[in-house]
Amino acid sequence: MKIAIASEGQTLESPVAERFGRCPFFLIVEEEGTLLEAVSNDATKASHGAGGMAVQTIAAHGVSALIAPRLGPNATMALKASGIRAFESSGQTCKEALEDFKKGSLKEIPLN
Question: Residue 24 is part of a domain; what is its CATH number?
């Protein structure tokens, strides 16, 4: 399973970003913990609709789940339409968030 993590940087040691739609990077990882790629988030430049654009970016990489601090309404609708589940994390490194995801201890963000 591929997972996207909203990240401040390009490594698993980077903090989870404080904002989803305008985070600098998405880390695309395998559930086992392998970093596949760090993807620059072009939605940071958008004047509006960043959440939906960000979802398009991660969906194009075939992810099944997202780890992010919180989601706006546009991102929530786009994730639901894409079939991508979302999980809440903040104040952690991406590596710590991924470990908590694997343990099942991250709260799932409802997409309704």
Answer: 3.30.420.130
